[in-house]
Each structure stands twice: as structure tokens, then as C-alpha cells.
# Entry
Amino acid sequence: MKLFIDANRQGYGTDQIRETMTVREMIEWLEQYDDDMPIYLRHDKGYTYGGITVRDFEEEEPEIDDDDEPEGGWDIGLHHFGRNE
# Structure
């Protein structure tokens, strides 16, 4: 058995995406499947396919407009984003 994620284009930027899963939601969803089941990306209704590897994951910090940034930067949870780092 194989598991497919249908890759859907919904916008030109992440601000145009109406809904997406969080890491926690994805982990909980995948728990129903066997640990050894391969996962594939399915593009264009099955016209092309792709695999997923650890090299495909990339973190990106949120873009912050300097005019909106409070003096000293932003405190977001345990991380501090700002000009002082």
C-alpha cells in the first residue's frame, strides 16, 4: 500500500493559503498508517509524482516589515526575532 499527498496550488504566496495542517495535526493524522508505508506527492491529479525526504524540509522565519517591528524585536514563544541578533 502507498500513501499519496495531493499537492494543490492555491496561491503565489503563503498568505494566499486558506488552510493548511500544522506539524502536530500531520503527525496525529499519520499515526493511523503503518510506519513503513511510503509517502508520495501526487501532482496534477496523478500526471506526475514526487517523493519526500528529510532534505525537502526547510524552515523559514516570518517576514517582518521593519516599520512594524517593535524596538528590540519580537518575542515569539521561546525564540526572539529582531535586529539585535
The first helix runs from residue 23 to 30. The chain is about 10% helix and 20% strand.
